[in-house]
Amino acid sequence: MTDDHDGSKPYLARIGGLIRDSRRHRGWTQAQLAEALSTSQSAINRIERGHQNLSVDMLARISEALDSGIVTLGQAAPTHLRVTGGRTLSGSISVKTSKNAGVALLCASLLNAGRTTLRKVARIEEVNRILEVLNSIGVRTRWLNEDNDLEIVPPAKLDLAGIDVEAARRTRSIIMLLGPLLHHEDAFELPYAGGCALGTRTVEPHLVALRPLGLEVKAVAGQYHVAVDRGVGPTRPIVLTERGDTVTENALMAAARRDGVTVIRNASPNYMVQDLCFFLGELGVRIEGVGTTTLTVHGVGEVDRDIDYSPSEDPIEAMSLISAAIVTSSEVTVRRVPIEFMEIELALLEEMGLDHDRSAEYAAANGRTRLVDVTVRPSRLKAPIDKIHPMPFPGLNIDNLPFFALIAATAQGSTLIHDWVYENRALYLTELTKLGAKVTLLDPHRVYVEGPTHWSGAEVICPPALRPAVVVLLAMLAAKGTSVLRNVYVINRGYEQLAERLNLLGADISTFRDI
Known about the structure:
Its main location: cytoplasm. It is an enzyme of class 2 (transferase). GO terms for molecular function: UDP-N-acetylglucosamine 1-carboxyvinyltransferase activity. Pathway: Cell wall biogenesis; peptidoglycan biosynthesis. Belongs to the EPSP synthase family. MurA subfamily. By secondary structure, the protein is of the alpha+beta class. About 35% of the residues lie in helices and about 20% in strands. The chain is built from 18 helices and 23 strands. The strands form 6 sheets. Strands 2, 14, 15, 16 and 17 form a 5-stranded mixed sheet that branches. A hairpin with a 2-residue loop joins strand 19 (about 440-445) and strand 20 (about 445-450). Helix 2 (about 30-35) crosses helix 3 (about 40-50), helix 9 (about 205-210) runs parallel beside helix 10 (about 245-255) and helix 12 (about 315-325) packs parallel to helix 16 (about 465-480). The two termini are about 15 Å apart. Mean pLDDT is about 90; it is low at about 1-10 and about 195-200.
């Protein structure tokens, strides 16, 4: 890409602007980008101002350094990871705030006519998709600083006809807009939900939960057609047919702005639900029974207040980081672990022989969630006597189960992993066999894992489900030689800069794209 006529290169200015924006999004200075490219800061300055001719090779190098598809045409090229494994990790790493809580709180911000400020929001693709949806219906959002504090200001009236259909279809979380939107419109449409490939997950529990609050839904041609009858209210407690997290959150948001008392039974008491309850409390909605399976919601008719809330840390990311230490036989301190939601996992790991310490408890920024620092040391693990299976909180977290397949592959003996919740997630765990693990699929819900494993490098296409995808990446950290994990968008949906943060502990992971 060269042009000798310096005065007529508007495309260079546009490309320079893209590079500048990508650099800032990554949080780099011009000097840091210059160092990554082995060039000068003045050269970067010229490039960003559109005063520098650029070869395709230089554009490709900039794209790789910034993990940004600047050189692609049309759809952005998929992102891949190259892992040089067999390295020991060391040091400490802090757990970031919860993806699932952040997404729920973004949806819940629609309940508030005032300004909502959320602190240290996980800057991940799932959040980006919800922000795109909110922006498309008139909500103003802006990132305030490098700490990922986020400001949300709703319009006087939402423009639901302008909804970004493509963004909505790329996330399951869109279903959680049913609860807050029923307070805004008597009739509206939402696109079908997407997200992880975990089999067909019915939305019927959501509809059962919301019907007593006046919401009726029909699925027609890829859209949910929603009608709201404001004369309908629950005459008895709402009993959820599934103790699901998002179902409980939808029911909470639907009840929050309804005058009167709503009782929700068989509610999930999981971490993201608790965060939503604390947030609703800041909006003036009194909720009894937080952390139990019966929630009593004292709704309020209108909410118009400026609030500031800090979502708590993510127990699934905590489990991911602890698993990284275990599979690489490393001593690592994982800080800010929400212990209430990790106690079963740590008890099971202790039974398997994990050597670890934990600090005294301290409070998260929301003032309620209990945190600890966990130090993991190299350990000789043995397979547990019983099968490992998830249960609703306070049992072993459903999203943490895949990490136990990875850990079982490092342990001496045979472990049965029973993933009874999802129809086909267990299937993706067999991808570990490409890296040397012995994982036998018994049926769509159960795998048999035999360890210990002598991991070896391989090229693997990223599983389309978030947690199994991360499990494969963590196994690559232990695999000698070079591994490639292709098309890692699904990981970026749920983790913020996971590869870069693992590198700070001593991993060797680089990002690249096909050009």
